[in-house]
Design a protein that fits this description.
heterodimer; B: mainly alpha; 2 domains; about 0% strand; globular
Chain lengths: ~280, ~300
């Protein structure tokens, strides 16, 4: 408890990380309260009032090419982006952590699992996600699944490395000597000691996933119009880039701030949780 | 060293085989009947049968795979469903564009990222350090497509320095390369800074200082070279990110590279192009990985024995 209190205090002293957490909390509140905060429904069109500039009465951030209120769409978009981040990381952790734990714990499965990871990593960058979307078809759901699978290798590797580093420690042997079964040793004794690097990576991965999913929506493979997803809003707004740059300005800014907040939080968590790295920074 | 090279080449062959299997499987992994999907929602039974025969989907799976590999070995990547143009011709036009974009971006990210990281580490705790790290954090978080659109607004629309319409001229690569380089630049700067800081705490650096070497010589001759090894890893990894990132960047600037071709083909369900495009990009990545690994082994003899 004392140690935990110390961590929390150290975290709060890490100003950029605390700032990231505050922004994320604010985004979560905005996302939850979007229907009450938004001045207009996100899909209501008003063609005579299209491409109204920011500051127009009733439309503080202006309107888009169909006269929809940009602020309202941004608020609803916060929901989508946060859900994307959470679901993607849940998929990646749900597949990657058990696979990595198994690979690290039992050499019999290590070869198969790591070759599968190698294969996934042989597709450069976002390309693995593109392969999956090419097979499943475009759309927000498939994009979340694709980005989730795309993120699996990171979690396999980190979990495996952590498990390997504790496998020969005395407390694991003690648990085994006391007659604990493999599953219990792995999930009750070993994994909890590997949580710190996983938590740090999961935080970074939320940022990466929001960015990747928004990119896929921007090129037309992710969320489809009229969904108020930020990347998709940018994609439809770019047509009027020269005459109405505000339509692309705000969704981009929203993605930037959200991703920045998760990256700052991840940096801070790493500094606080990983004493080995702290010396270097 | 020879043994190491052979092992790496064998690994490359393994990766290539895996990629071929994955691209082959793509058609067969489509939910439902691929012939039906490709023929479209309103296809008659006859046209579905036609598609099935044309693609050889009526053959047993091992036969299909053998044919696929046989065609690949002859350099025959099939023809586009949509235009019936050979895929090799489509790729031949778009590949040089993407390759140039990727190389310029990686060069830019390295040429700017490494010096920034060194300056930040050497002047640790100063304003220069703080400013570099703030910029790097922003570079990691900014959506590339938003950055690209803003660059167009600034340099093409406001200042009128560069045109925003893609024409394939050398100057047309400037904004796309900056856009694509930003994320990797930030990662490289951060990695350079932290590995430089780590090296600077080593005993041999203290020894070098103690024996009276000039600070500059210590930093740049003793510290930087050792600090660069982990940076090389990050640069190698970033080549993958950049190859994948060409897809987004090309879309922003309407460049007719492989990324644009790939996205259009995914939306059109033009599978021969999708398969071939992914195959080519993945094989490029595998070769680059091999080359970077060999480069490490040359620079750092410890790596060969791992």
């Amino acid at each position: 408890m004392n140690r935990r209190g110390g961590l929390w205090r150290r975290f709060l002293r890490h100003r950029s990380a605390a700032a990231g957490l505050v922004v994320i909390a604010a985004l979560a509140v905005v996302a939850a309260l979007a229907p009450w905060l938004a001045p207009h429904p996100p899909d209501v069109q008003n063609l005579p009032g299209r491409l109204a500039p920011p500051g127009t009465p009733g439309h503080p951030l202006g309107t888009d090419e169909l006269g929809r209120d940009i602020l309202s769409r941004l608020l609803y978009g916060a929901r989508i982006s946060l859900v994307i981040g959470i679901i993607v990381v849940a998929v990646a952790v749900g597949v990657g952590v058990p696979a990595g734990a198994l690979a690290g714990y039992n050499p019999r499965y290590d070869g198969v699992i790591m070759r599968a990871v190698d294969l996934m990593l042989s597709f450069p960058g976002i390309l693995l996600a593109l392969v999956i979307i090419a097979v499943l078809g475009p759309g927000l759901g498939n994009t979340m699944l694709a980005v989730g699978i795309f993120s699996v290798p990171v979690f396999v590797r980190i979990t495996r490395a952590s498990i390997l580093s504790v496998r020969e420690l005395e407390y694991v042997q003690a648990a085994r000597a006391a007659g604990a079964r493999d599953g219990r040793i792995l999930f009750r004794h070993m994994l909890p000691n590997c949580l710190a690097p996983l938590l740090v990576q999961a935080t970074f991965r939320v940022a990466t996933s929001i960015l990747t999913a928004a990119s896929l929506s921007f090129i037309g493979l992710g969320a489809q119009p009229p969904t108020p997803e930020w990347g998709a809003m940018l994609a439809t707004g770019r047509v009027n880039l020269y005459i109405a740059p505000h339509v692309t300005l705000y969704p981009g800014l929203a993605i930037f701030i959200t991703v920045l907040a998760f990256n700052l939080l991840g940096d801070g968590l790493r500094d606080v949780l990983d004493p080995r790295l702290r010396a270097a920074h | 060293m020879l043994q190491y090279v052979l092992r790496r080449v064998a690994h490359l062959a393994l990766v290539a085989a895996g990629v071929v299997v994955v691209t082959f499987s793509m058609l067969h992994l489509i939910p439902g009947d691929p012939a039906h999907v490709i023929a479209g929602d309103f296809a008659t039974q006859e046209s579905i049968e036609g598609v099935r025969r044309r693609l050889g989907l009526d053959q047993p799976l091992p036969v299909q795979f053998a044919r696929y590999v046989g065609r690949l070995a002859r350099g025959d990547l099939g023809a586009s469903f949509r235009s019936n143009v050979p895929v090799t011709r489509e790729l031949g036009l778009s590949y040089p564009i993407s390759a140039q974009l990727a190389v310029y971006s990686l060069a830019l990210a390295t040429a700017v990222g490494v010096p920034l990281g060194v300056v930040a580490a050497v002047r640790r705790g100063t304003f220069a350090d703080l400013a570099t790290m703030v910029v790097a954090m922003a570079g990691l978080s900014i959506p590339s497509f938003w950055l690209g659109l803003n660059l167009i607004l600034l340099f093409s629309v406001r200042l009128g320095w560069l045109r925003s319409i893609w024409g394939g001229a050398p100057a047309d690569y400037i904004l796309p390369s900056v856009t694509l380089a930003m994320f990797s630049l930030a990662l490289i700067a951060r990695q350079t800074r932290s590995s430089m800081l780590e090296v600077l705490t080593q005993d041999y650096i203290r020894t070098a200082r103690a024996k009276g070497l000039a600070v500059r010589a210590v930093y740049y001759r003793h510290a930087l070279l050792n600090a660069l090894i982990p940076v090389l890893t990050v640069i190698g990894l970033n080549f993958g990110y950049i190859l994948g990132g060409t897809v987004i960047t090309e879309s922003i600037f309407s460049m007719r590279g492989m990324g644009t071709l790939l996205v259009a083909s995914i939306l059109d369900r033009d599978y021969p192009i999708v398969q071939a495009g992914i195959l080519v990009l993945a094989l490029n990545f595998a070769v680059i990985n091999l080359l970077t690994d060999l480069l490490y082994a040359l620079i750092d003899p410890r790596i060969r024995y791992e």
